[in-house]
Here is the input.
Amino acid sequence: MFRKEIKVLDCTVRDGGLINQYQFRDDFVHACYRAACEAGVDYFEIGKKLEVSDAYPRDQWGKWNFCDDDEIKRCIDSCDAQTRPAMTVMYDVGRVDVSKLKPADQSPIDMVRTACYVADVDKGIDLVRRTKDLGYETTLNVMAPSAAIEVDLVQALGEINEADEVDYLYLVDSYGAFYSEQITAYIELYRKYAPKRPLGFHGHNNQQLAFSNTQQAIIDGVNLLDATINGIGRGAGNCNLELLLNFLKNPKFDVRPIYRVIQEQFVPLREEIEWGFNDIYGISGYLNQHPRAAMKLRANPEERDRCYDFYVESRNLDG
Amino acid sequence: MFRKEIKVLDCTVRDGGLINQYQFRDDFVHACYRAACEAGVDYFEIGKKLEVSDAYPRDQWGKWNFCDDDEIKRCIDSCDAQTRPAMTVMYDVGRVDVSKLKPADQSPIDMVRTACYVADVDKGIDLVRRTKDLGYETTLNVMAPSAAIEVDLVQALGEINEADEVDYLYLVDSYGAFYSEQITAYIELYRKYAPKRPLGFHGHNNQQLAFSNTQQAIIDGVNLLDATINGIGRGAGNCNLELLLNFLKNPKFDVRPIYRVIQEQFVPLREEIEWGFNDIYGISGYLNQHPRAAMKLRANPEERDRCYDFYVESRNLDG
Here is the structure.
């Protein structure tokens, strides 16, 4: 598949940091950034930009939960690449202070992505407007649409359609629940009710479908695609960047730096933290559930592989 | 997705046995068979039916490489299920002796699947004819079409189209190389040149696409689908049966016995043998290569995770 409009967003550090509360070493984050530069990806999301608070004390959360400008600059300066991805951070509705965000021309950040649930879409749009006013490129990532009541989702899409400050509207498969035919159906829905908004896609790999659903989004015309190195990310993880770059035939991409950083950084990291498909996440994805119960089970050495018990208990809770 | 014509073939033991030379314990094979009975799958492929030879001495290969009738009967008798899948074995062109096959009405086998490369399709058709003459349901599984020269493949499809003894013609993604759009293109090719043959599909999971490609085959009208419990199979393995049964909404299927046998039998087995996606198989799939080089690398503890080196060396060999 080649389409020159397609852009790739590497959210390795931001989504991977959900596994370990952003406790990555600097050399790991800098190596990921260098790989993204050399691979030619279009955006690099380095973390969240939350406010320090009682819920998010700085000493318990790694620096990429807060993304101070000087830390981002240190990362950028660690690499002498000629071409660089646009630098991206994520905003969570209710956990940020936009009044502290500098204008884009005084900041190392190029794009701010705002994440919210359908119920908070007005707050999300407000944040997008205020970040756009400061000069940033913007996205609005509406989480868990697979679990939203459709009339609410349709209303939210209509509001987003009127918000010209939203540069990209994301279809997000938060629970890893979508099959390809549902990707197509939701993209049609988003196009019908938010026709003015270019679309992005962010998958999760609960059912081994993050990469194939990303392909389906491409086939259906989506041009901004999230992926992570080695598929790292919360729970079952995300679309593997290296598989996606192989699929995209654009000569601007070079997959070799991605395989190099996997070999050098991710192989040892896999001994420390877990991500990727397993039976438990497969069940939570199929049941269209938030992965928290599955993640809790995986953290319990006695229970982590008891997929039959998890399936039966999860279905009983349904009934 | 629900379509009443869809049938599922569990080739757990046959494809999984390629990992360990069919050295499964009886209680494992019997547990798989019981799970398949209780889950309501349509076919259960218990192994290959090769001739003992210098290349295949009985003492080095497990019993499910030879599938003696009395061993199959012992498996069947180990389970008291009311409904049972049709019992299936695989024939490899050049390694079997069809003159020793009993007529179907004197055998515990219901279906014989013949596997061959495009170059051997005449030999494959001959074997199918002879097994059909003995009363068996038949398939012809043409391996590695992704690596075949299209004019040869088209000629083979034309011959298969005229062989009415072939009950199902299989599209086989031997190298795990296909993307969904290629599945669609090959199914169109098979339909164009072998319109009289109902189709089956057998995927491999090198690029995390075995399940999604099986979905694509379903969307494109294929009605006989291979899968294995927990995705077990050579190299990156196959389409996970449990994910597929979740996807298929047919009430005749019950996924719970599959999750139970995973919990009881496959979780401990994963400590003994390896299958499933990893970076090395992802590369061999992308490069449309036989997995033997990748399997050799995975067997070397020093090299098994050196994906960058494998990628660069594989590309250099290409050039």
Observations:
- The radius of gyration of chain B is 19 Å.
- The first helix of chain B runs from residue 12 to 20.
- Chain B is about 40% helix and 15% strand.
- Chain B has two domains: 7-269, 279-318.
